[in-house]
Design a protein that fits this description.
Layout: H1 15-20, H2 24-32, H3 47-54, H4 57-65, H5 80-86, H6 90-98, H7 113-119, H8 123-131, H9 146-153, H10 156-171
Helix pairs in contact: 2-4, 3-4, 3-5, 4-6, 5-6, 5-7, 7-8, 7-9, 8-10, 9-10
Length: 173
């Protein structure tokens, strides 16, 4: 798929194709050739968002290290952090938080990464977000908090985690 020279051409993968193909070497090559790191693909997804959603920690780190924007100004449905959290990709959640992702940023439905992790019963991701001080009091557009979703799923461990975090945060003036 790649040419013998170092410049991308029409026969090459674009960056999004390389991310979706989980082709780490092609991602590296395209980054080295100056690929547009924040180019939007389908559903206004960027390469960072795709890597986060697919749990591709190594590719995500390559993109972050190369300067890809973890908060691109796009009309996407979700943020990279929300995509990683709702998919249960703990290592991607950690990488995005370490890179400065906004733990309380909302998607088009008003959900945060903590809400997304609770909706999908991802206790590992919820735990990391709690440690990062994600606000459990935030309600989505339907008026529900992460704790509400945990209670709906009847996940006792998640309920305990979120209830204790909710109570701690609620006591802070």
């Amino acid at each position: 798929m790649t040419s013998n020279n170092d410049t991308p051409n029409d026969d090459d993968f674009n960056l999004m194709d390389a991310v979706y193909a989980d082709d780490i070497e092609e991602v590296k090559r395209l980054i080295d050739c100056g690929a547009a790191l924040n180019e939007k693909g389908a559903f206004c997804m960027t390469a960072v968002m795709a890597a986060a959603q697919n749990g591709q920690r190594e590719i995500l780190n390559l993109l972050i290290d190369a300067g890809a924007d973890i908060h691109p100004d796009v009309d996407a449905l979700d943020t990279a952090l929300i995509l990683a959290a709702q998919s249960g990709h703990l290592e991607c959640v950690k990488a995005l938080l370490a890179a400065g992702a906004d733990k309380d940023e909302r998607n088009f439905e008003g959900a945060t990464a903590l809400i997304a992790s609770a909706m999908n019963s991802s206790i590992d991701c919820a735990s990391i977000l709690v440690l990062a001080a994600a606000d459990p009091r935030i309600k989505d557009n339907s008026g529900k908090t992460a704790l509400d979703y945990a209670q709906e799923s009847q996940n006792a461990d998640l309920i305990k985690l979120l209830a204790s975090h909710f109570n701690l945060v609620s006591e802070i003036p």
